[in-house]
Amino acid sequence: MGSLVLTDLHASVVTDEGETQILKGVSLTIESRTTHAVMGPNGSGKSTLAYVIAGHPKYRVTSGQITLDGVDVLGMSVDARARAGLFLAMQYPVEVPGVSVSNFLRTSVTAIRGEAPKLRTWVKEMKGAMVALQMDPAFAERNVNEGFSGGEKKRHEILQLSLLNPKFAVLDETDSGLDVDALRTVAEGVNAFREQSAAGVLLITHYTRILQYIKPDFVHVFVDGRIVKSGGADLANALESEGYEQFAPASA
Amino acid sequence: MTLAPPIDLAPRLTSPDPDVFAVPTGREVEWRFAPLDVFGRFFHPIEGAGSVVAGGESEFVRNVDIADLRSSWLPSDRPMAIARSLVQQAVVIEIPRGQVLVDPVTVKLIGSTAAAYQHVEINVGAFSEAVIVIDHDLDRDICGAIVVNVGDGAKLTMLSVVAGDTLAVHISHWHTTIGRDATFIGCAVTTGGSAVRISPSVSYGAPGGSAELLGVFLADAEQYLEHRIFVEHEQPHCTSRVTYKGALAGPGARTVWVGDVLVRRGATGTDTYEMNRNLLLTEGPRADSVPNLELETGDIVGAGHASATGRFDDEQLFYLQSRGIPEQQARQLVVRGFFAEVLGRLDQGELRDSMMEIISRRLGLPEEVSGNGLRGW
């Protein structure tokens, strides 16, 4: 059993105007085979949490630590984190003009697995994963995220999740901008991944809607850069009826 | 972007006599960017300079004595006029009328001396179709022209490759005249040499012609690459598309792209668009991009231009790295993708791949090849 452990994590965003602290002491332990939902209002810093785990250069960790199976993550480059078993499904996946999905996926899978998959089995594997997410195989020839609809972008993220098979996956607002059908398809993809792998999942969301399809083991309320309350799946129901106002920081 | 001076609307000065053209001083609009200390060697006759010949003759390719060349082309600057007056041999490529060639005609140009003059004359007969790949000699300093005549209703795709890990100086003028309803697709792939100046120009001999000028260039530290395009629309109902992309890395890497498009009064129904994008991969390079569009008539289908020079997008890098792809490989993928948008416009899959291969090799992809500067950026 592995674990992703965040200990008293402080981080700030670096902009031209200076540095602003966003994460103000986040501690969280995610064990393999468990799903944690982090829920919070806009601007609470939950996307920052996702980026900091993945190692986005815009953010600077000022104190605290992250370990994956006991190994320090913060000292690793972005790509080394991914090869160590971390995955971030992004809220806003980036367009990469001129790079086809199939080339991208194969390069990525080769980097993660440490060897190039055999061409014949690879094509089958990729097509199979696409069909499972109800994606047209012609999709593989398009440029990465270029001209994708919101739903296509999110399916593409989950496609990568299933092919890269990480130890821990962070899903950053994977539900945002999806209609009900697309949400169901994406959620089925995540659930299939959870069943097939021993991975731990950190599901970051603003709404409880996705939790009807992806059942979390734990729910954390995230406000003003820290976790203010933790509980079981039923905590989400309380949030649904009562909103985030009860957790608003005293200063607000 | 540099502010563009207006295009001189007078017909360009052309002459076979080098002395009609003054020795450039660097103050001239067309020489203001260029390193004249390097190109200056071609401003005066070079004693003992030989000629460029085709590496192998074929059914379509011949080396001929310059006295036997029939060409109506006239030089429009001093280096070209000197080269034209001193070159002793010409390479003639002739595609007979009505022939549709399946395989590309590949011509390897070779200079006979360390500095050599060049004249290549390409005649594509009416209603023929051909793909011609010109592989320039970058082991020698070369100055000269490629003159292309695309016959009525013909279709020519011409790739002109100036690549190689050398410090050569190269100046060439590629002039294409497009016949009635003919199609010309010209693609420049420029990655090598220490100082390279290429001037592709297009004119239309009759209505209905179509030109697509593509270009990809990569400049490394202390390398100067200039592309100076001139499209003159003087016939009605012709189209032109110019798409050039460049990437620069390392201190002293320098590129210049000038795109002059002139739509003459009689060229009604013209449809033209030109675009240049440059990607700065490191601190230190400089890219100049100067699109010029002059219209003498408003009775056209469309005319436009775009130019942008930007830095490498770190978000793309983060996205690829977050999928386990190491930083250097991720950078190379992004740059390869940047160029793929241009080369993707070529219909010929194999050629597209081999041009991409040149780019990849220059970027250090795949891992085992190339040891020069762009690898480390």
Provide structural commentary.
The complex is a heterodimer of chains A (252) and B (377). Helices cover 33% and strands 31% of the residues of chain A. Chain A has 252 residues and is α/β, with parallel strands linked by helices. Chain A has one domain: 3-Layer(aba) Sandwich (Rossmann fold), CATH 3.40.50. The longest helix of chain A has 17 residues. In chain A, the strands form three sheets. Chain A has a six-stranded mixed beta sheet, sandwiched between helices. Chain A has a four-stranded antiparallel beta sheet with strand order 2-1-4-5. Chain A contains seven helices and twelve strands. By secondary structure, chain B is mainly beta. The radius of gyration of chain B is 20 Å and the shape is globular. In chain B, helix 3 crosses helix 4 and helix 4 packs antiparallel against helix 5. Chain B contains five helices and 18 strands. Chain B starts with 35 loop residues before the first helix and ends in a 14-residue tail after the last helix. Chain B has one domain. The longest helix of chain B has 17 residues. Chains A and B meet through helix 2, strand 7, helix 3 and strand 8 of A and helix 3 and helix 4 of B.
What is the gyration radius of chain A calculated from CA atoms? 18 Å
The number of domains of chain A is 1
The ordered H/E elements of chain A are EEEHEEHEEHHEHEHEEEH
How would you write the strand order of the largest sheet of chain A? 6-9-10-3-11-12
Q: State which percent range the strand residues of chain A make up.
A: 25-35%
SSE class of chain B:
mainly beta
- CATH H-level name of chain A... which superfamily? P-loop containing nucleotide triphosphate hydrolases
Number of strands of chain B: 18
End-to-end Cα distance of chain B, whole Å, is 24 Å
What does the main sheet of chain B amount to?
18 strands, mixed
Overall number of strands of chain A: 12
Mean pLDDT of chain B: 93
- What is the CA-atom radius of gyration of chain B, in angstroms? 20 Å
User: Fraction of residues of chain A in helices?
Assistant: 25-40%
Biggest sheet statistics of chain A: 6 strands, mixed
* Oligomeric category: heterodimer
